Amino acid sequence: MGSPVVLGIESSCDETGAGLVRDGRLLGQALASSMAEHTRFGGVVPEIAARAHVHALNPVVRGALDEAGLRAADIGAVAVTCGPGLSGALQVGLAGAKSLAYALGVPLYGVHHLAGHVAADTLAHGPLPDPCVVLIVSGGHTSLLLVRDLARDRIVHLGDTLDDAAGECFDKVARVFGLPYPGGPAIDRTARAGDPCAVPFPRPLTTGPPAMRFAFSFSGLKTAAARWAERHRAAGRPLPVADGAAALQEAVADVLTRKAVAACTEHGVRTLVVVGGVAANSRVRALAQQRCAAAGLTLRVPPPRLCTDNGAMIAAVGDLLVRSGAAPAPLDVSVDPSAPL
Ligand code: KG4
Ligand code: ZN
């Protein structure tokens, strides 16, 4: 008998995702987003996100099954994000996953959201090489990891952000620049018409003590961008938003890729994997490609649809857990909104 079809459910923030994976292969996925409902508040409102998951959960599971040409009875295991994320939002996905696992009589697996981001790449490019360096860049996290075996938690943290995440920096600066939420994609689009050298924004923690060589800091960059915008407004000059967006994006991409390549070189690792919402950024992708080629490294970045939150990545971890013989979660498992990786 082959491996079971694993249903993955993601609901940690404003995306409700379902995906179906078997033996490392993506069979179908569906996604619903409450993003539009948060736009006028300039950021995700937890209560609105949780309520939206209640509406979207069953339709996205149905959508993933339809895309795969499968029925609910074909599901052999259910994997669900238990954290980190918004507590109420996570509760909705977990309650739905427990009900499905119980009703279908199949095992339930609790998944760490960041492990999901890493596993997303396996759906595009196959099993991860052991070892590889993984750069996770999302709205809530920026981390450099040395990964040996994701399913068995053989992961070493090389560095994390000391303050804001890279995506958070994009989102907050976009707001100051008057761009819509979510800020990352808006900065990416706006930057196309700008000059990345127009503003000499800082490259935080690229010089300094060796202990900080794989750490990140984006709050100073955020403040520098806000001050730049204030100076224009105070002088009554129109804000050259495209130049600001291009220069900010260049600074973020420069810091991320420089440190990620240095981590590979220092640890003698041949493959860099870049995942998470910010891995969808066009400049991060291009600069990572350029610097990996120059350093003789293989770069793996999932297609943009698998970079941002989705259910397929959670199914991918569930599939790895099932195949590695991991123990399922009890049906009274709880969410862990600040789960460490
Ligand atoms: O991984 P993700 O979907 O959710 C979290 O786990 O946080 O990442 C969302 C983050 C947001 O900060 C969003 O602005 C950013 O990813 N993002 C981007 C792009 N697409 C999404 N940032 C820059 N350029 C993009 N194209
Ligand atoms: Zn995420």
TrEMBL record:
Subcellular location as annotated: Cytoplasm
GO biological process: tRNA threonylcarbamoyladenosine modification
EC code: 2.3.1.234
Cofactor note: Binds 1 Fe(2+) ion per subunit.
PROSITE patterns given in the database record: GLYCOPROTEASE
GO function term, MF aspect, one: iron ion binding
Function: Required for the formation of a threonylcarbamoyl group on adenosine at position 37 (t(6)A37) in tRNAs that read codons beginning with adenine. Is involved in the transfer of the threonylcarbamoyl moiety of threonylcarbamoyl-AMP (TC-AMP) to the N6 group of A37, together with TsaE and TsaB. TsaD likely plays a direct catalytic role in this reaction.
Protein name: tRNA N6-adenosine threonylcarbamoyltransferase
Biological source species: Streptomyces sioyaensis
Gene name for this UniProt entry: tsaD
